[in-house]
Specification:
The chain is an all-beta fold and 110 residues long. The chain contains no helices and ten strands.
Length: 110
């Protein structure tokens, strides 16, 4: 089982990015998948989760700005991040209870 994140980059405050998490070896819609983020030197911070029914939940720090969706045909889920803030800068990881991707860097800076 493998997860691969993509879509990170440099964006100005107030901008948007869409991260993708593509699964191989299992069906991504069959189990809960979460996004976490980590600033170097700090602990992992939970960002969001989507369950097999498509229900989502978000940390208070991103609620109203981030959304999650899935493309089952591509075995991929997405994290749409809008109105980004400098404090959103981190490495973003998608993860299940069994595996985690390598992460994608998001930098929010003017």
């Amino acid at each position: 089982e493998q997860l691969v994140e993509s879509g990170g980059g440099l964006v100005q405050p107030g901008g948007s990015l869409r991260l993708a998490c593509t699964a191989s070896g299992f069906t991504i819609s069959s189990i809960p998948v979460r996004w976490n983020r980590q600033v170097p030197g700090k602990e992992f911070e939970w960002v969001s989760v989507i369950d097999s029914a498509g229900r989502t939940a978000f940390a208070d720090s991103v609620k109203g700005r981030f959304t999650m969706s899935r493309d089952n045909a591509k075995n991929t889920l997405y994290l749409q991040m809008n109105n980004l803030k400098t404090e959103d800068t981190a490495v973003y990881y998608c993860a299940t209870g069994r595996t985690r991707g390598q992460g994608t860097q998001v930098t929010v800076s003017s």
